[in-house]
Amino acid sequence: MSLIEITEIRKSYGTNEVLKGINLDVEPGEVIAIIGKSGSGKSTLLRCINGLETITQGSISVAGAQLIDDELHLKALRLKVGMIFQQFNLFPHLTAGGNVMLSQTVVKKTAKAEAEAVARKMLDRVGLGHKFDAYPDELSGGQQQRVAIARALAMQPIALLCDEITSALDPELVAEVLAVVRELAAEGMTLLMVTHEMRFARDVCSRVVFMHQGRVHEIGPPEEVFANPKTPELQQFLGVH
Amino acid sequence: MIEFSTWDILRNLLLATRWTILLSLVSFVGGGAVGLLLLFLRISKRKAARAFAKYYIELFQGTPLLMQLFLAFFGLGLFGVDVPAWLAAGMALVLWTASFLAEIWRGCVESIARGQWEASASLGMGRLQQMRYVILPQALKIAVPPTVGFSVQVVKGTALTSIIGFVELSKAGTVVTNATFQPFTVYGLVALIYFALCWPLSKSSQILERKLNVAHRNH
Amino acid sequence: MTYIFDFGWLAEYYPQILKGVLTTLQLIAVGAVLGISLGIFCAWARALGPSWLKPVVATYVELIRNTPFLIQLFFIFFGLPSLGLQLGELTAANIAMVVNLGAYSCEIIRAGIQATPKGQFEAGASLAMTPFETFRHVVLVPSLQRIWPALSSQVVIVMLGSSVVSQIAAEDLTFAANFIQSRTFRAFEAYIVSTLIYLCLAILLRQVLVVVGGFIFPRRAAR
Known about the structure:
The complex is a heterotrimer.
Chain A: E1 4-13, E2 16-26, E3 31-35, H1 42-49, E4 57-62, E5 65-66, H2 71-80, E6 81-84, H3 96-106, H4 112-125, H5 141-153, E7 159-163, H6 171-186, E8 190-194, H7 198-204, E9 207-212, E10 215-220, H8 222-227, H9 232-238
Helix pairs in contact in A: 3-4, 3-5, 4-5, 5-6
Chain B: H1 6-42, H2 47-61, H3 65-77, H4 85-110, H5 114-122, H6 127-157, H7 169-180, H8 183-218
Chain C: H1 10-48, H2 53-65, H3 69-79, H4 89-114, H5 118-126, H6 131-161, H7 173-184, H8 187-216
């Protein structure tokens, strides 16, 4: 059984169908890059897996837990799957440490001392142990995104969803965030990332998914997809002729 | 005929001001509590709750406070009880204040970026937890200046309770005028006392807002 | 004992109500037009006017915004005659509403003026316009457009607030309700009916102001 099973999912906004029957199975430890033009549905797919968008049809299960749209099931699912956002979405009224501790104490009811220990460990892991007491507005974009990763990791998820996590960053800050992700991948974390970083996708990912007009248009290991694009749409997207 | 000095007039007015202050406090605190409840209904996931709060707010903001006072006064009377003016005044002002505070606060909650809801949801928080730990702490900060600003409207609103016979500053003004035949002095003084109550509130609301804007720009 | 509602009096007294509604409408029409005009003038004075005028206008605005409308009305109607200025109820009510809305709209319009990009003033100046010409032809209309929703809400608030003019015996809708309840002893029904009429007037007025806004600001960029 796969870790994440996405079966025939469809998603419409009114009459506009943005996902037109997606199938994707993800094995534990896989790192999947989802690429494609804007509007191809790649971010929507990611947000559906986390229940931020409700699907119109089909089913999603993560480690055997079905995605059902009620608070209890959503919570169970979200405890297993962490999400990192393009705009970081740190809580501005809490310190970096507070951000990482909050959901541990509130959702998991972890004791404060233990949550703090975990938070310090996670911040260390992303190289920001010394910023425990800093507020988000005192951190650079790259640092904020690393705190967001630590925040998701603190919930001990079995998979992470990364939604264009370097797109809002200044070019010189991209590397520090990708380094953290690379390390997570090396440690065996299951990752699904929507990304524009093709080199990163080529180097780190086990499979690449090319989405086009709400469908999985091409899928395969990076060396195949990048070196040997079969469809004209992917060729055009990659700029090879 | 008794002569009234300006001091006599002022003393009488100031004594009545106590009731204006007390009624303002009760209305503001009570209105805040009911307003918070309305806020939760207004942003609830349940359609019926949202609709109820919406129409409540529409009704209380779309009709004169004076009418609400009359209806409270005569409406409570329908139950056969002899309604004291202070009860009708307090009740109407609480309900009226609640409708405005709920709407002000809703604006604050909605100004919190969507990402904050999404990030907290993705961490497994339920709706109440999101509100309690993520949204409200941020919304509260920006809600302070307009809330303080609205307290001025509450103080001024209490003046209308004189019309249903509650003896506060405005009513005292009328009573003293009838005794002294000095409307210019008396209503001038009444206005100045209201000003002394309201202006500090207006001013602090402005200062708080400016501080908040500066803080935002630096972030 | 249960209370039995009785709206039978409506048949006899609807002319009073109609007359009250018309008076209320007349009050808000005059109040809105003159009040907003006064507000525009005061906003100009506070934002761009001569330095001696600024504190005068500021004092007026602060005084009005921090005292109850009822007291302003009493001061004008009962207080001013002792200075030799005798006013009829309707005139006093009209003046009070203009003065009141003038102060509130001043602050609202001023916010609109302050939100004008600096470049607009500079562009006006570079075209050899005087500061006043720039204000009149470049700044004013976009500023008004910016704050039109807030200004509309304030007009509705003033309309609802006008119900207290019944206290100086101006014969508005509330006056009609008071009159009817004193004759019929059907207080609750009289106030229910007039409250609902006020609600309709508020909704209607809001719509009218949207239409008026569309008329004054035909399809210009929102900022």
